[in-house]
Write a structure and sequence with these properties.
The protein is an all-alpha fold. It folds into two domains: 1-220, Up-down Bundle (Growth Hormone, Chain: A); 241-424, Growth Hormone, Chain: A (Up-down Bundle), CATH 1.20.1250.20. The protein contains 15 helices and no strands. Helix 4 (79-106) runs parallel beside helix 6 (132-160). The radius of gyration is 23 Å and the shape is globular. The protein starts with a helix and ends with a helix.
Length: 429
Amino acid sequence: MYYTDKYKKSRAKILKVNKSEGGIICRKRQINKMDDIRKNKKKTAVRMIFLFYLIFSILTNMLNPVTPALFLDLEMPDYMFGVGFACMAIATFIFSPLWGRACRKIGCVNVFALGFLLYGCTQILFCISTKQLPILCCRFFGGVAYSAGVVASMSCLMDVAEEAEKYNFMLYHSAITTVGVALGYALGGIVGSVSVGMVFAVQITTLFVLMFCTKISLKESMFVKTGTTIESSKVVECSRSPMSKKSQLFLVIVFLSSFATTSYDTAFTYYIKAALGFPNYWTGLIRGGIGIIALVVDFTVGVWIIRSNKARKKIIYVFILCSIAAWIAPQIEIVWVFVVANFIFFTFNALYIPVQQALATDSKGEDNTSVAGRFTAVLFAGKVAGSLFEGGIYNYCNQLPFLAAGVIFLVAAFLSWINYRQNSCKVKR
């Protein structure tokens, strides 16, 4: 029985006691005390979920800056980095709704701890693998474990959150993901400068410790089962209601932007190691700095765009700026200027994702509600396609993924202009 049920029964018993004036005062004091205890337990549970998820996000990104060096040492082809990322994205896409059901059956805390355990075991196998197929299998099961951690953390937060708190909790969850990526890249690059094996050792050891801490400190009784699951609210549980042409176009734009970003991002991580010869710690520090900038931009310019009345119009300019930066950056031969140009690209790039999320969840009509249900599915589909595309063309020309991303962003800008006109015409009518 969950804590809320116990709380309600205890509160009911208090209300049945003494009907006198003094009894009423006593009852109020007891109820207020119970309310304070409940709020404190809730705050503790939320803080621990955020803390554990932050650590998990850091650990899952620690290996990224050293993976290109690992593949180069194993004399594997360049496309392996993109294909490995695609395997993780595919696994996340498939297993996220399954983990949502598991949260209902065995509890979100158990799924949370299971994600840590599975990812640790997967990394052990990844560490000892030297062939392409075993490594790709490890990347796939790594995506399975990663989706468990993400889904379980969001499910715990949705279970304990009041209706007015859900938006803030999701905003903090997204912010923690951004911070985790930045710190993970930075820490992985620094530790990887010593040895790749040390990154695995730190990662695996911490994951197992985190699993035990989760099981000891978090109980299922801390979380209310409200019926809100990640399966229906955040993953690929899509509505079967028909969509209008403007909604279909919006999802095409989401797919193209996710495709272009993933292609550019995957190529950039490999390019600065293989083509420019950057050491692991520099790779990590650069990506860490990019993550911090993305976080600041999201909470400043991104929030301003979302709150404006013409978010659909402003996102056109964002895509155009992304396109220009993607074309210019790989043409620069001076290393430090190249790095600065990529900082500019990722700054522009960080703007469109929160704007698209806001547009997808803007459920003023039935049609927009349908779009919100399909948004995550299309986003993951773009990540899978983008990583596979990058892995296929990088061998032909290491600058081609950057140039292709620029073209795709320009196409997304043009389609966004059409989508903006469609919505403007609807408002006028």
